[in-house]
Amino acid sequence: MNFFAFITRGCLWVLLVLTMCGCATAIHRAGDTTVSKVLVKENASRPTVILVHGCGGTSPHEHWMKILDANGFNTVLVDYINPRGFSTICDLNAPISIDKVANDLNELLGWIQIQKWHSGNVSVMGFSFGGAIVNTLTDTDNLRAKGVSVDRIRQLSSIISVYPLCAIGGFAEKAAVPTQVHFGLKDYWTPHSVCMTDRLDKTNYEFVYYEDAMHGFDIPGTATHVNGTFRLQFNPSAFEQMQKNVIRFLN
Questions:
Q1: Spatial separation of the C-alpha atoms in residues 234 and 224, rounded to whole Å
Q2: 138 and 74 in contact (C-beta within 8 Å)?
Q3: Residue 85, number of CB atoms within 10 A of its CB
Q4: pLDDT attached to residue 144
Q5: Is the distance from CB of 66 to CB of 49 less than 8 angstroms?
Q6: Do residues 81 and 5 touch, judged by C-beta distance below 8 A?
Q7: What is the pTM of this model?
Q8: How far apart (Å, rounded) are the C-alpha atoms in residues 156 and 160?
Q9: What are the structural domains of the chain?
Q10: E-only strand ranges, the chain
């Protein structure tokens, strides 16, 4: 484990980084999910947000660590594909069980709760495939019926799902904890219509729609296709709106 300290506006911040080499050990391992990076404020304790990446791995979502840090939150970026022997799962053929990842997250929550840098709320934020994973956390009764440990999942303060792949991980009819969901209306890889939000009890749900946004609209610099078919495109306006919505919801 490597520790990088840096000074920002007179304060000491610490970034814990998993060194990507054969001899490295993870910051923490929960089942087959590892903690890739943690951004915390030294000698202080703050609420924490767990970031659950999409099919392409952790790097497209690292900028959210700085955004959340600037707004008073620790961030824990997890990796659930490399420890399982994959570098990407965007072809969706990898045998990854979202229920097993959910079980890993339940274990990870216990580790976060005993860290000196953490106090208060723990939230989880998932993107695309990771969105499908966090969607399942809205239905703790269903997870428990499948043998997933949910004691700590039930203690989550909130869930944020970003352009989730609802085809493999849908929402509970009534969310166990407050849940905010972000959809790009021009996203044809994970279209919001598949999520069938009309059937849900809206008590604990907030759905946010972005008019001209495609998949990956929150990832600066993105303009590409995945699998030769699905368009990913950064949208600065939608990204700015989303940041405000996320911070408002977390607070």
A1: 9
A2: no
A3: 10
A4: 95
A5: no
A6: no
A7: 0.89
A8: 11
A9: 2-250 (3.40.50.1820)
A10: 2-8, 11-17, 29-30, 33-41, 46-52, 74-79, 118-127, 158-162, 179-184, 205-210, 223-226, 230-233
Rg, the chain, Cα only:
17
Calculate the alpha carbon distances from 11 to 46, 70, 75, 170 in Å: 14, 12, 17, 41
User: Hey, what long-range contacts does 199-205 have (CB within 8 A, 24 or more apart)?
Assistant: 199/173, 200/171, 200/172, 200/173, 200/174, 200/175, 201/173, 201/174, 201/175, 203/174, 203/175, 204/138, 204/174, 204/175, 204/176, 204/177, 204/178, 204/179, 205/171, 205/175, 205/179, 205/180, 205/181
The pair of three-digit structure tokens given for residue 193, joined into one six-digit string: 């219509």
Q: Residue 43 in contact with residue 219, Cβ under 8 Å?
A: no
Q: Is the pLDDT of residue 216 over 70?
A: yes
Contact 163, 184 (CB under 8 A): yes
Identity at 179, one-letter amino acid code: T
| Residues counted in the chain | 251
pLDDT at 15: 59
pLDDT recorded at residue 125? 98
Q: What are the helix (H) ranges across 114-204?
A: 129-136, 140-145
Contact yes or no for 137/124 (Cβ under 8 A): yes
Question: 84: closest CA among 97, 75, 71, 73?
Answer: 97
